[in-house]
Amino acid sequence: MSIRTEKVASVIKRIVVEPISEIARQHSAGMVTVSSVKVSSDLQYAKIYLTTLNGKITPMEFIAILEKNKYKVKAEIARLAKLRYVPEIKMFIDDTLDQMDHIQKLLDDVRSTSNPSSEEE
Predict the structure, then answer these.
(1) Of 8, 85, 104, 80, whose CA–CA distance to 47 is shortest?
(2) What confidence tens digit (pLDDT) does each residue in 7-63 have?
(3) What gap in Å lies between CA 69 and CA 39, rounded to an integer?
(4) How far apart are CA 40 and CA 1, in angstroms?
(5) Residue 87 buriedness (CB in 10 A; 0-12 / 13-18 / 19+)
(6) Rounded distance between C-alpha atoms, residue 103 and residue 121, angstroms
(7) Distance CA 29, CA 12 (A)
(8) Domain locations in the chain?
(9) Partners of residue 38 on adjacent β-strands
(10) Nearest to 44 by CA among 77, 79, 3
(11) The pTM is what?
(12) For residue 65, how many other CB atoms are within 10 A of its CB?
């Protein structure tokens, strides 16, 4: 990513936190964090990655709700960001933590099966 796209992603991330948090409160989605924003090189598309915690609805249900209320998020970007065009946004659940847990479990399994002789001694 270029410096410009990184700056725009940072600005968009800062802007979208409030409307996304408000939608989360309205729908009992629990604590929602904007983990990252990735913007295309032409600044026309933005991918927003979210993590959720302790919600009464599933993360995928929350994403569906956000897609229906995408206009609120885009309106905030249009109002606060000094961009020529408001990028088309798409929201995703960030599953990095789940992947890290899975890898850690695999490593623990490998360690426990590769050292059975040390446990017998």
Answers:
(1) 8
(2) 999 999 999 999 999 999 999 998 999 999 999 999 999 999 999 888 899 999 999
(3) 20
(4) 8
(5) buried
(6) 28
(7) 21
(8) 3-94
(9) 47
(10) 77
(11) 0.80
(12) 17
How many whole angstroms separate alpha carbon 22 and alpha carbon 119? 52
- State the DSSP code for 30: -
Which amino acid, residue 62?
F
What does the block give as tokens for 107?
Answer: 């490593």
**What CATH topology corresponds to 3-94?**
GMP Synthetase; Chain A, domain 3 (3.30.300)
Structure tokens, 74: 């885009």
Structure tokens that stand for 97 in this block = 């933590």
Amino acid at 19: P
- Taking the C-alpha atoms of residue 89 and residue 12, their distance in angstroms, rounded to an integer, is 10
- Residue 55 DSSP SS3: coil
